[in-house]
Amino acid sequence: MQENKKIAVENLNLYYGEHQALIDINVDLKEQKITALIGPSGCGKSTFLRVLNRMNDLIDGVRIAGKVTVDGEDIYDNNMDVVSLRKKVGMVFQRPNPFPMSIYDNIAYGPRIHGIKKKQVLDELVERSLQQSALWDEVKDRLNKPALGLSGGQQQRLCIARLLAVEPDVLLMDEPTSALDPISTLKVEELIHELKNTYTIVIVTHNMQQAARVSDYTAYFLTGELVEFDHTEQIFTRPRDQRTEDYITGRFG
């Protein structure tokens, strides 16, 4: 089956002041596939993830060279509307960060910002997003209760639902289960599998088993370089680069 390219990264270099954090990255990320970014702490995984929706723009002293396109559109073009980009390419962070408001208002927040005001439309969006995030059955009777009253795992799925409510194409996930217990982690992993049918997903993880379980493709980063990118099965069973094998087998460092 033909796999379509969703995101293309060409000759990407990123600097924090004088420090080069990403070095000549070239990679294509496939549509409706899950790509895991692995590598030791400080290797550039999260920096690369933030490149894909220009979150690095918020950091002083960042300089980027190269080209990044989403659906063929250069996201670093001067005419790019960054608000629209972040609606299309949304992000879930390491720790759940629900807003201090009701469950309903957390989900409806984004659509309201983008101009949706009709209660019936918002009601449908809230229900659909919570259904998609496998949370609806757990919270449907307490939508007006504070989101901060949910468990950690529920809060993370709420944050995913909040992201889905603005109807993105791409989901960026920065270690979305690192703050969760094993049962909540499993629920989020099952959810990620389901979401792949609709969305392109890029996930940063330190957990080798998680990368092997959830992803179609894996990218191994080391000191700012993309060492290897391939189908996940290939990476974990027959890596082509010795550095990748050393990391996966625990011989790294």
Please tell me about this protein's structure.
- The chain has a domain at 5-96 and 169-248: 3-Layer(aba) Sandwich (Rossmann fold).
- It contains 10 helices and 10 strands.
- By secondary structure, it is of the alpha/beta class.
Layout of secondary structure:
Layout: E1 5-16, E2 19-30, E3 34-38, H1 45-51, E4 62-70, E5 73-74, H2 82-88, E6 89-92, H3 103-113, H4 119-132, H5 136-139, H6 152-164, E7 170-174, H7 182-195, E8 200-204, H8 208-214, E9 217-222, E10 225-231, H9 232-237, H10 242-248
Parallel strand pairs: 3-8, 3-9, 6-7, 7-8
Antiparallel strand pairs: 1-2, 1-4, 4-5, 9-10
Helix pairs in contact: 3-4, 3-6, 4-6, 6-7
Q: What is the 3D form?
A: globular
Give the % helix: 25-40%
Mean pLDDT: 94
Order of helices and strands: EEEHEEHEHHHHEHEHEEHH
Biggest sheet layout: 6 strands, mixed
Biggest sheet: strand arrangement: 6-7-8-3-9-10
CA gyration radius, whole angstroms: 18 Å
User: How many β-strand runs?
Assistant: 10
- The computed structural class is alpha/beta
CATH homologous superfamily descriptor of the domain at 5-96 and 169-248: P-loop containing nucleotide triphosphate hydrolases
The CATH class of the domain at 5-96 and 169-248 is identified as Alpha Beta
Continuous helix count: 10
Low-confidence stretches: none
CATH architecture identity of the domain at 5-96 and 169-248: 3-Layer(aba) Sandwich
CATH topology of the domain at 5-96 and 169-248: Rossmann fold
Measured between the Cα atoms of the first and last residue, the distance is 39 Å
Strand content: 25-35%
